[in-house]
Amino acid sequence: MMTRQRRANRVIFLAVAAGFVMLAVAALAVVWTFMRSQDYAELVSHTIEVEASVADLNRLVERIEASRRGYLLEGDSRFLEVFEKTAADIPVQIDRIAGLTADNPSQMERLDHFRDLTRQYLELLRNSIVDKQAGGTGVRGASLLDEEDITVVQELRDISDAMALEERRLLVAREAEANGSVYLSTAVAIAAAILLIVVAAGTIWATRRTLRALTSIGVQLQELNDDLESAVVERTSELQRANAEIQRFAYIVSHDLRSPLVNVMGFTAELDAAIKPLNELIDKAEEVAPEIVSEETKFAVREDLPEAIGFIRTSTEKMDRLINAILRLSREGRRVLAPEAVDMNALVEGIVDSLQHRIDELGVTVETEPVPTVVSDRLAVEQIVSNLVENAIKYLKRDRPGRITIRGKKASGRVLVEVEDNGRGIDPKDHERIFDLFRRSGSQDQPGEGIGLAHVRALAYRLGGTITCESVLDQGAIFRLSLPMALAPQQGVNT
């Protein structure tokens, strides 16, 4: 009887184990098919991105032709500015498409041809502009494209159409593969579900059989359970005590975070104060017994020690500034917003007046244009605009007269505030990086810890707005603050 029971138990165990192994295999298959589906989805998204980039490139080509014509017809330098900006954007967009299609030789070949034609096309457009600037009529460029222009434009369109067609073909193929992967994933999931039901049924049957066998030893299990409950109660009590201790420790650490820093700063001051008597002692020793004072000792006291103390003081001061800045950010994040009608013109005027001494000192020209009124938190808006204006003053180029323009307008139910300068500019790759905490761009020749713009973006988000940057190195920068016309009621409460 016992032998038969053991065999039955062994068979049950092996069956359940085999079922779980099969279930694990099915789960892995589901994960594998899901990852394949995700890969196909990424390929489809990549193809759509390439298509959109090609469309953007076509729009740039159309824009540069429109700006050329506008300049030739009107002679307005603003068209020329748009022309030059677009001419600079086209190679960047081509390089972007090249990065996206680096794995497609046929697309790369078309793109290389497109790049060569673009250079030729830009040269033709520039020639017409030069002719206009030289006093020519510019009639040919202002009216209709000449034969050479038409040929180049047609070739550009043919290449872009071919690239778009290739991407469309890839999109169709990849969507078909993605759909196949979805069908496969569904089939695998269904199979896994069926297998799960089978394994569950077998497990329930085996469990019931086991429970019936365990009924005969219920008394022993009850005793074990009683002992286990006592152990759990004791262990829970220990865990509660440990948790309370951890909480007390966290409280102490949070309140004493600055203590080590204060001690270091204090002892650094004492070391700094001790340098003077040491120097006096060295001077006296040199007078009385110069042979006992080595050059290494003098250099250590007069050079190494002050330099080391200076490094320590600089580091502790920086750490102190960082802690204070983080605490300010934390407090600001908890502050309850108070919506009110904010006269943006008066606010901008007040900010400029507060910085007038620095503006006059640097010889900066500040121009202000009307800015619409918003209903928002006055303090937060003032901190944002003030930070942007201060940065514009701080990062002007010293080899040319500084010019800062503050303006605003309504757009799509929002208020757009712009702070533009002609300073050193920001590398395009850093346009988002500068809004990260403790991150800065360019040469670090101005004081700061990389917190200001992070604070600005955090405040803008709390007000339901956004902050963006548009800049080119050595050509200044434009910071755009977009705010809702009125702060939503739910945004005025700190949750």
TrEMBL record:
Keyword Transmembrane helix applies: yes
Transmembrane residue ranges: 12-35, 182-206
Keywords: Kinase, Membrane, Phosphoprotein, Transferase, Transmembrane, Transmembrane helix
Entries under InterPro entries matching the protein: BphY/WalK/GraS-like, CHASE3, HATPase_C_sf, HATPase_dom, His_kinase_dom, HisK_dim/P_dom, HisK_dim/P_sf, Sig_transdc_His_kin-like_C
Domain of life: Bacteria
UniProt catalytic activity: ATP + protein L-histidine = ADP + protein N-phospho-L-histidine
The keyword Transmembrane helix belongs to this UniProt entry's keyword annotation: yes
GO annotation (BP), single: osmosensory signaling via phosphorelay pathway
Primary enzyme class: transferase
Documented EC number(s): 2.7.13.3
GO molecular function, one term: phosphorelay sensor kinase activity
Residue ranges of every copy of the Histidine kinase domain listed in the record: 252-487
PROSITE patterns: HIS_KIN (PS50109)
Name of the protein described by the UniProt record: histidine kinase
Organism, as annotated: Jiella pacifica
Taxonomic lineage from the root: Bacteria, Pseudomonadati, Pseudomonadota, Alphaproteobacteria, Hyphomicrobiales
